[in-house]
Amino acid sequence: MTKGDGGSGGSRLYLITPPKLDPVAFRETLAAALDAGDVACLQLRLKDASPDDVKRAVDALMPVAHAHDVAFILNDDAILAHRLGCDGAHLGQSDGDHAGARMLLDGKILGITCHASRHLAMTAGEQGADYVAFGAFFPTDTKETVHTAGTDLLEWWSEMMEIPCVAIGGIMAQNCAPLVRAGADFLAVVGAVWNHPDGAPAGVRAMNAAIDAA
Ligand SMILES: Cc1ncc(COP(=O)(O)OP(=O)(O)O)c(N)n1
Ligand SMILES: Cc1nc(C(=O)O)sc1CCOP(=O)(O)O
Ligand SMILES: [Mg+2]
């Protein structure tokens, strides 16, 4: 993950899967979304799935991501990400030992959730995170959120640090401009793409157009 070089503000799209999916049926949906425009990486985020289910999803979806030159990141589990040959893992504050994950994922991507905390972000950077994620920026139906982040955090981080930052939480084409301008390297979205009324490809196009226009 390098600092954004996407749209005018430098942000790129970070796509996260819906929390439940049928891997085989979802292959085509994903391919159509990735055909529609620039996506830097795809995070497989299946909640309450067994390791076997996650493996089936990785086997079905990682080749689609790679065919589109999109990095494939597994949520929540660094050991499984390593075992399944993913390009990296995204870990929250309750998803195990970050320093151990850093060693295991040598040469791979490690992203860490930092909520709205400068302290957590500094610690993640010291532990070798390839990106830090701040959120939630806006209300979201995708997940119950406790923390609220503001654009000051993105400005502070991007002025001070070379490590890329990801903004997440309720981000849509209509509200993303301030995040782009504040220095978010990546905008992570679920609903803006998968719940777009005109379908996921329209969601990807709308997000990229909004990033370019910011
Ligand atoms: C890019 C990105 N940022 C934040 C999160 C949230 O991670 P976490 O706090 O572990 O919560 P869950 O996603 O596991 O519910 C994320 N997944 N991706
Ligand atoms: C998975 C996740 N993590 C968040 C955080 O604040 O850490 S918000 C969130 C949900 C993102 O989905 P949507 O783009 O639909 O709001
Ligand atoms: Mg997690």
Features:
214 residues; alpha/beta; 9 helices; 17% strand; globular; binds the ligand Cc1nc(C(=O)O)sc1CCOP(=O)(O)O; binds magnesium ion
Brief account:
Its cofactor is Mg(2+). The protein is α/β, with parallel strands linked by helices. Helix content is 40%, strand content 17%.
Compile the SSE list and pairings.
Elements: E1 12-16, H1 23-35, E2 41-44, H2 51-67, E3 71-75, H3 78-83, E4 88-91, H4 98-104, E5 109-113, H5 118-126, E6 131-135, H6 151-160, E7 165-168, H7 177-182, E8 186-189, H8 191-194, H9 200-213
Parallel strand pairs: 1-2, 1-8, 2-3, 3-4, 4-5, 5-6, 6-7, 7-8
Helix pairs in contact: 1-2, 1-9
Bound molecules: the ligand Cc1ncc(COP(=O)(O)OP(=O)(O)O)c(N)n1, ligand 3NM and magnesium ion (MG).
Task: Give an overview in words.
The chain has 214 residues and is α/β, with parallel strands linked by helices. The protein has one domain (12-213): Aldolase class I (TIM Barrel, Alpha-Beta Barrel), CATH 3.20.20.70. The protein has nine helices and eight strands. It has helices spanning 23-35, 51-67, 78-83, 98-104, 118-126, 151-160, 177-182, 191-194, 200-213, and strands at residues 12-16, 41-44, 71-75, 88-91, 109-113, 131-135, 165-168, 186-189. α6 links the parallel β6 (131-135) and β7. α1 runs parallel beside α2 and α1 (23-35) runs parallel beside α9. It is globular. It starts with 11 loop residues before the first strand and ends with a helix.
